[in-house]
Specification:
Length: 181
Amino acid sequence: MANHMDPNAIRLMESMEKHGKKDAGEKYSNESFLEETADINEKFAWAKKTCAFLTENFDEKTVKAIRMDCACGPQYEWIQSVKDAYDSSMGPEDFVEKTNALNLGYWLEYDGSSFYLMYPQCYCDFVNLVEETLPKAWCYCTLGYTKKMFEYVLSKKVEVELITAVKSGDKECRIKITEKV
């Protein structure tokens, strides 16, 4: 693997390998090489091509697992402030109120059994500056990001589900977060 490959492309290839698809990951990386210096239009074109490759070669469950595992990780300082809000809260509703008061660019809701994380815009710096939409397959990485964040914050295993996605044409990104029982 060349050291000038974009870190997102490296994580994708490693995730495919983790899910038993090493040959596919290597083949795709060789055919669709993305340099670290790629501009936003090249990154978007690569993201679109990546979605097509994944959905043509893997079932939905595997696509989701691959994209979740190649997600960027949340910044520690950011999630620590959310964990502090959770640790000091008197319950789920109080946690939601304290987290929303942090003004982190998203908001939470709670319906009595699950949390909902909502983003008013796409924050993926890989594709957010291009107006064109992408398949939800691209946005499954936000599930990996959200899972990492909320498992840390809640100190529990969670299940995550992508309900809507801005880059797929929806008005907001909405992710359902449910504690595993």
